[in-house]
TrEMBL record:
It comes from the Bacteria. This is Uncharacterized protein. It comes from Cecembia calidifontis. Pfam families: SwaI-like.
Length: 233
């Protein structure tokens, strides 16, 4: 089976499941003023497991354990086709529509590396959008008239970067870019290398500034003068 066809089939089936969940929960009992993102994610996790209990392709779906904030996935499932079983990690992202142009952290690169080491590859990001209402919130369409935006991490926009906290970042509105799995591995490591080089450059400049300046000596002298005033009371 062609890899691209395989990947598109997974994404299409995932998107259909999430759209069904949103259709059944158009205005969930969640306050937009609380931890809406976390509560929406919990709703999607639970409903995804329920919706795929007897699914043609998705089997053995599991939601992230309650309170497991460091879990590498919000839900996991196995995509079954033609006798092949493929592990899929799912990361739900609930986005307030007024913040649809933000650049949130989307997780450490370590988790996709661990997934690839395990013999699998697919971490799917599922974005849903909401706005505040008088009674709480409701799901809405994004600028592309979609209730659900979905793509694999391997197809993330080339504008993504790794920050000093070892988190990947990308603009929510950035368009995904289809690439091969090997191309993604190359791009990922290029981004990691670029990030470390930026950190080295920043640290090098900071050390040079410390070496050139006499800030420490000035602070010690100012502190001495302050202490002398106290001693002479």
């Amino acid at each position: 089976m062609d890899i691209k066809d395989f990947e598109r089939k997974i994404l299409n089936e995932l998107k259909a499941v999430v759209e069904t969940i949103l259709d059944k929960n158009q205005e969930p009992n969640i306050s937009a003023k609380s931890r809406a993102g976390a509560e929406i994610s919990s709703l999607l996790e639970e409903q995804f497991v329920a919706e795929t209990a007897n699914h043609q392709y998705f089997k053995k779906s599991v939601a992230s354990p309650a309170g497991a904030t460091k879990n590498p996935w919000d839900a996991m499932t196995y995509f079954n086709i033609n006798g092949h079983e493929e592990l899929i990690w799912i990361d739900f992202k609930a986005v307030k529509i007024s913040s649809a142009d933000s650049n949130p952290d989307i997780g450490t690169p370590d988790k996709i590396i661990d997934l690839i080491y395990s013999g699998f590859f697919y971490l799917a990001y599922v974005f849903v959008y909401y706005e505040e209402t008088q009674n709480g919130l409701k799901f809405v369409k994004n600028a592309d008239s979609e209730f659900v935006k979905i793509y694999f991490l391997k197809d993330i926009s080339s504008t993504f970067r790794r920050n000093p906290k070892n988190q990947l970042q990308v603009n929510i509105s950035a368009k995904p870019e289809e690439r091969s799995r090997e191309d993604f591995i190359n791009v990922l490591f290029e981004k990691i290398e670029e990030s470390h080089k930026r950190q080295i450059e920043i640290s090098t400049k900071a050390l040079e500034k410390l070496a050139e300046g006499n800030t420490k000596a000035k602070l010690i002298e100012i502190n001495k003068q302050s202490e002398d005033k106290i001693k002479n009371l």
